[in-house]
Structure formats: C-alpha cells, structure tokens
Specification:
The chain has helices at residues 10-33, 42-45, 53-69, 73-91, 104-119, 126-130. It is mostly helical.
C-alpha cells in the first residue's frame, strides 16, 4: 500500500501563505477597530474593564502582522488561539453555535489558528528567507 505524502508544490506554498494572509488580515482589522475610543462603550457590556481596551487591540494586531510576515508564526497563532478561546467561552459564553450571537466565526478562527500552529510559516515567509530562525521560533 503506497504511503500518503504531502508534496511541496508552488500551490501548497501559495495556499499556505493565503491562509496566513486571510487570518492575519481578519485579526488586524478586528484589532484596529478596538483602537477607536468609541469601542470602550462595548467593553462593560461584555464584562471587560475599559482600561484594557488597548491591550485587547494590541493582542490581535501584532500577532496578525507577524503571521502575515511569517515571523514567530506559531507563537502568534498560539496567542490568537487563546484570544479566540476567550471570545468563545467568556464573550459568547458558548451558548449558541449559529445565529446573531453565535460562536461559529470565533470557532473557525480558532481552527485556522490551530492549523497555522501546526503547519508553521511555510516557504513564503520571512522565516524561510532568513533561514537562521530556530524552528521553535517560527
């Protein structure tokens, strides 16, 4: 029985980068919204302190940028996975899967972050270009 192997082709590299680009863009956009002072109105409704608004923004923007660039990809995706777990269980309270207050989008983002943790930065990344970045930091 032949073994199953994943071949590394240009399509594989492009799809790898496409996933990182999509997830990073979503988190950057969501984080930039949190820098707006009017966003602080929503935090008490979610049970979060207002003075942590910028921390919530930074924890999405910086890992999003690093994921797109392909630097510290696994660490950044781990941070974003923790953010999504907080959203699913603290903000959304995991009460509904589908609907206006459903957790389907955070669950998809969590799954994509876990995939990025697993596959790493790929060949279309700054980590691959530098080649001296230790694997555990990629």
């Amino acid at each position: 029985m032949p073994g199953a192997e994943i071949t590394h082709s240009k399509f594989h590299d492009i799809s790898h980068f496409g996933l990182r680009l999509a997830i990073g863009s979503i988190f950057i956009t969501a984080g930039l919204i949190k820098f707006d002072p009017s966003f602080s109105v929503y935090l008490p409704q979610m049970g979060l302190p207002v003075n942590m608004q910028y921390l919530f923004a930074i924890q999405e923007v910086i890992p999003g940028i690093l994921i797109i660039a392909g630097i510290l990809t696994r660490i950044s995706a781990s941070i974003l996975s923790l953010v999504m777990l907080g959203v699913i269980f603290y903000i959304d309270k995991a009460s509904k899967f589908i609907g206006p207050d459903g957790a389907e989008i955070p669950i998809i983002l969590l799954a994509a972050s876990i995939v990025i943790i697993t596959i790493g930065p790929g060949r279309v990344s700054l980590s691959h270009l530098i080649k001296k970045v230790p694997r555990f930091l990629q």
